[in-house]
Specification:
The complex is a heterodimer. By secondary structure, chain A is α/β, with parallel strands linked by helices. Chain A is 43% helix and 8% strand. The relative contact order of chain A is 0.17. Classes of the chains: A alpha/beta, B alpha/beta. Chains A and B meet through helix 6, helix 7 and helix 13 of A and helix 3, helix 4 and helix 5 of B.
C-alpha cells in the first residue's frame, strides 16, 4: 500500500478546490461515468456486482429521503440526512466482510443497509422511542454514537480485542471532518498505532461540521494527518463508489493481515443539512452545491452502467420501484412504532439488581398507576 | 490455589489490591489491566507490582498517556468480550476520561436495551493527605455516584480492598472503584479463605449507642479514631463504613440512627453537594422521629483542594469530627 502525497503540500492543498481529481485523490470512476486507472488501486467486478452497488445507493438515498419526509411530517423528532454520501457509505460498507465490525456515527444509514441492519432500527432514536435499541453483535454494527468521535476509541478497543483473539477480521470506525478536531479521535489514532490494531479509520469529509467549513477544522489535508501517527492515510473520491470500495477493501485487508491501522478520507459532500434542524442556506452558497451536484455518486454510476450496457431501462425502473416499496414499508413500520411505557426507563440501566433503581421503579410506578388510563 | 491465597497474612491495602488483581487475572483469562505506568513500574503506588512480569504485557498493558483513550478503548474491549480493569493514576486526572465514563460506559447498556454489558472497573486512587501537588488529592466520587448506570464503591481497609476489587471485576456492571491513597500503607490480617462481605453493602465497623458516624474510604479510619477518643470521654459512637456509594446501602444507617438518635456524615469531599447530603436527606425522611438533632455533615469547604501545606487544616480530622459530635449533643 502506498500513500500518495504528491502535490499535496500544505497551503496549496488546503486551498485546493473541492473534489478535483488529482494525484492525491484516488478515483476509479469519473463524474462522467468513465473508468480511470490508479497505480495503487483497481476494481474488477461483474456486471451484477456493479448493478448491486447502484441498487444499494438508490435504495439508501430513498431510505434517507423517507427519514427526512418522516421528520417533516412530525413522525421523527430529528433526522441526520446522508444525501450525497451514498458512495462513501455503500463503497465502504460493501468492502466489509460479515466478520468485520463497524462503529458508526449517527449518519451511517447506508453502512447499516450494507450490514443488513433493518432500516426501521435506525428510526427509533430519531423518533424518540429508544436511544439505540439494536443488538450490536447481531450484525456487527455498533449503536449510533452522538458524542462526536467517541466511537473511534470504542472501535480501537474492539480491534485490540480481535487482535488478542487472533480473529481474522477488522474494525472500521466512521467519523466526520468535524470529529477530527476531537481529542478522542486523536487518542484513537495513538492507541491504534502503538498497538498495531486492526482498525480502519474512515472519515467522511463532507466539508461541513454543521455550519463550520473545513477551513475552521484543519489547515493540513486530513489524510496527511495519519503520517504523524505512523500509519498510512489516503484520500479517496468519496462520490466514487468504486474507489471507496477498492480503497476500503484494501485497508481492511491490510488491517486483517496484521499490518495495522489506516486512515481513509472519503472526500465527499453533504448535499443537505447536518440534521433537519439546521438550514444550510444560512452558511453556504448555492454555487458550491451546484458544483457538487455535478459529481453525484448515483448519476455517475448510472452513466457507467449505461455506457457499458451493464443495465437497461427495465433494471433502473425495477430499482426505483423497489425503492418505493422499501420506503413504504419503512413508513408504515415507523408510524406504528409504539411509545415506550414510562416504567421501561428503569429497565436495562444495570445488569444486576440495583436497590435505588428498584425503589424508584416501585415509587414512580405506583404514582403513574394512580392516574386513570395510565399505561 | 496459589501460595498468595493459601494462608493468612499481614498485608497493606495496596498489597490487598495487588493480590486481588492477581487472583482475578488467574481466574479469568478475559481480565485485562490497563493504565499508565502499571507495567514495569507497577503503578506509581505499586498496586500492580509484578503483575506484568507474571501475566505478560498483553494482559497488563502500559497505555499511552491519555485517559479518555484508556477508558474509550476499554469500552471496545468490553464489547469484544474482555473485562478491562483500568487505572486512572490520580483522582484529578479522571476528568479527561469523564466524558467516556458518563456518556458511554454508564449508558451503553440502556442504549442497547440490555443487549450488551460494560464489565469495566475504573480504579481511582483518591483523597488527600500525602502532601501532593495540585490535582493529586481530590474526591470526585459524587460526580460518578450521580450518574445512573455506574456503580461506585470505596474501600477503606486492606481486607476489603482484596475482596472488593475481585467482586468489582466479577460484576457485569461498570464499577468506579475508589482507593484511599493515604491508606495504601495501612496493614491488616487477610484470610483469603474467608467468605467475603458483599460488595454493595455498608457495614457497622464499631458499635455504639450515643451517635452514629457514617464515612467511607480514608475517613473510616479517622472516624474510628474519633470514636476511640470519644469513648475516653464517655460517649459511645457507632461507626459505619458505607463501602458502596451507588447503590447506597442505608438500611444499617437507619437502624443505627433509630438506636443512637444522632448522625454525623464525614467525607473529604466538599460538604456542598457531597455524599453526606444524600445520606442526610434520606435519614431525615426515614428516621425523622428518631432524630434528637439535625444530621450534621463534616467535610471540606467549597474551595479547590488547597496547597499541601494547609491540607491538614482543610481535611476533616479527629477534632473536626468530635466537634460535630459535640454540636449534635448540644441540641
Amino acid at each position: 500500500m502506498v500513500t500518495s502525497r504528491k502535490g499535496a503540500g500544505g497551503k496549496t492543498a488546503a486551498k485546493k478546490k473541492a473534489g478535483a481529481a488529482g494525484p492525491d485523490l484516488v478515483q476509479l470512476l469519473t463524474p462522467e461515468g468513465d473508468l480511470v486507472e490508479h497505480p495503487d488501486y483497481s476494481i474488477d467486478l461483474t456486471p451484477e456486482e456493479y448493478r448491486g452497488l447502484y441498487r444499494d445507493m438508490v435504495l439508501v438515498r430513498r431510505i434517507d429521503a423517507e427519514g427526512t419526509a418522516l421528520q417533516r411530517q412530525g413522525q421523527l423528532g430529528l433526522w441526520a440526512p446522508l444525501l450525497g454520501q451514498e458512495a462513501a457509505q455503500v463503497g465502504s460498507g460493501r468492502a466489509q466482510t460479515a466478520e468485520d465490525f463497524a462503529f458508526p456515527t449517527y449518519r451511517e444509514h447506508g453502512v447499516a443497509w450494507c450490514r443488513d441492519v433493518d432500516p426501521v432500527n435506525l428510526l427509533g432514536m430519531f423518533r424518540g422511542v429508544n436511544n439505540g435499541g439494536w443488538d450490536p453483535n447481531e450484525k456487527n454494527f455498533a449503536l449510533y454514537t452522538i458524542v462526536i468521535g467517541s466511537q473511534t476509541l470504542h472501535a480501537t478497543g474492539y480491534a485490540m480485542g480481535m487482535q488478542r483473539d487472533g480473529r481474522e477480521a477488522a474494525v472500521i470506525a466512521y467519523f466526520g471532518d468535524g470529529a477530527s478536531s476531537q481529542g478522542d479521535v486523536n487518542e484513537a489514532f495513538v492507541f491504534a498505532s502503538v498497538n498495531n490494531a486492526p482498525v480502519v479509520f474512515f472519515c467522511q469529509n463532507n466539508q461541513w461540521a454543521i455550519s463550520e467549513p473545513n477551513e475552521r477544522q484543519f489547515r493540513v489535508p486530513l489524510y496527511q494527518r495519519a503520517a504523524g501517527f505512523g500509519f498510512p492515510g489516503v484520500r479517496v473520491d468519496g462520490n466514487d463508489v468504486l474507489a471507496c470500495l477498492a480503497v476500503t477493501k484494501a485497508a481492511l485487508e491490510r488491517a486483517r493481515t496484521g499490518n495495522g491501522p489506516m486512515l481513509v478520507e472519503a472526500f465527499t459532500y453533504r448535499m443537505g443539512a447536518h440534521t433537519t434542524s439546521d438550514d444550510p442556506t444560512r452558511y453556504r452558497d448555492s454555487d458550491e452545491l451546484e458544483e457538487w451536484k455535478a459529481k453525484d455518486p448515483i448519476l455517475r454510476m448510472r452513466a457507467f452502467l449505461e455506457k457499458n450496457k451493464y443495465a437497461d431501462e427495465a433494471f433502473f425502473k425495477d430499482v426505483d420501484t423497489e425503492a418505493d416499496t422499501v420506503a413504504a414499508d419503512i413508513r408504515e413500520r415507523c408510524v406504528s412504532m409504539p411509545d415506550p411505557k414510562p416504567i421501561s426507563i428503569f429497565d436495562h440501566v444495570y445488569a444486576e439488581p440495583h436497590p435505588l433503581m428498584d425503589e424508584e421503579r416501585a415509587e414512580y410506578g405506583a404514582y403513574w398507576e394512580s392516574f386513570e388510563g395510565a399505561h | 490455589m496459589s501460595d498468595s491465597t493459601s494462608k493468612t497474612q499481614q498485608i497493606s491495602l495496596g498489597k490487598g489490591l495487588n493480590l486481588g488483581l492477581r487472583r482475578a487475572l488467574e481466574d479469568d483469562p478475559k481480565v485485562l489491566l490497563m493504565g499508565e505506568d502499571i507495567g514495569k513500574l507497577g503503578g506509581v503506588f505499586r498496586v500492580t507490582d509484578g503483575l506484568q512480569k507474571d501475566f505478560g504485557d498483553s494482559r497488563v498493558i502500559d497505555t499511552p498517556l491519555a485517559e479518555s483513550g484508556i477508558v474509550g478503548t476499554a469500552v471496545g474491549l468490553a464489547l469484544s468480550g474482555y473485562r478491562p480493569v483500568v487505572e486512572i493514576q490520580f483522582d484529578g486526572f479522571v476528568y479527561p476520561a469523564f466524558d467516556q465514563i458518563v456518556t458511554q460506559v454508564a449508558k451503553m447498556r440502556a442504549r442497547a436495551l440490555g443487549k450488551v454489558s460494560m464489565p469495566i472497573v475504573i480504579r481511582i486512587p483518591f483523597g488527600g493527605g500525602i502532601g501532593a501537588v495540585e490535582h493529586h488529592s481530590e474526591s470526585p466520587e459524587a460526580y460518578f455516584a450521580m450518574t445512573a448506570g455506574l456503580r461506585v464503591v470505596a474501600a477503606s481497609n486492606p481486607v476489603d480492598a482484596y475482596w472488593m476489587i475481585q467482586q468489582a471485576i466479577a460484576s457485569d456492571d461498570p464499577v468506579v472503584f475508589f482507593e484511599p491513597k493515604r491508606r495504601y500503607w495501612d496493614k491488616a490480617e487477610l484470610d483469603p479463605t474467608a467468605t467475603p462481605y458483599p460488595l454493595y453493602a455498608s457495614r457497622v465497623v464499631r458499635e455504639g449507642t450515643d451517635a452514629t458516624l457514617v464515612a467511607y474510604g480514608p475517613m473510616v479510619k479517622t472516624c474510628l479514631e474519633a470514636a476511640a477518643a470519644a469513648a475516653e470521654e464517655g460517649r459511645s459512637l457507632e461507626v459505619i463504613d458505607l463501602r458502596t456509594l451507588s447503590p447506597l446501602d442505608l438500611e444499617p444507617v437507619y437502624a443505627s440512627v433509630r438506636k443512637t438518635g444522632r448522625l454525623i456524615t464525614v467525607h473529604e469531599a466538599s460538604v456542598f453537594m457531597g455524599m453526606g447530603a444524600e445520606v442526610a436527606a434520606k435519614v431525615t425522611e426515614k428516621c425523622f422521629y428518631s432524630l434528637e438533632a439535625p444530621v450534621l455533615r463534616v467535610g471540606a469547604p467549597h474551595t479547590p483542594y488547597p496547597p499541601s501545606r494547609v491540607e491538614e487544616e482543610f481535611l476533616p480530622d479527629l477534632d473536626r469530627v468530635l466537634d460535630a459530635v459535640d454540636r449534635a449533643f448540644a441540641y
